[in-house]
Amino acid sequence: MNGTLITVAPTGAESAKADVPALPCTIDELVSTAKSCQAAGAAVIHVHVRDDDAQPTLDIGRVSAAVEAVREATDLVVQVSSGGAVTDSYDARIGVLDSNPDGASLTCGTVNFGADVFMNPLDLIERLYLAMREREIVPEFELFDLGHVTTMRRLLDKHGAPYGGHVHCDLVMGVPGGMPGTVPALTAAVQALPDGATWSATGVGRTTVPVMLAALAAGGHLRVGMEDTLTFAPGRAVRDNAELVERAATLADLALRPPLTPDEAREMLGIKDRRRLTQKATETGAR
Ligand code: KMH
Ligand code: ZN
Question: What is the three-state SS of 4-57?
Answer without folding.
Answer: ECEEECCCCCCCCCCCCCCCCCCHHHHHHHHHHHHHHCCCEEEECEECCCCCEE
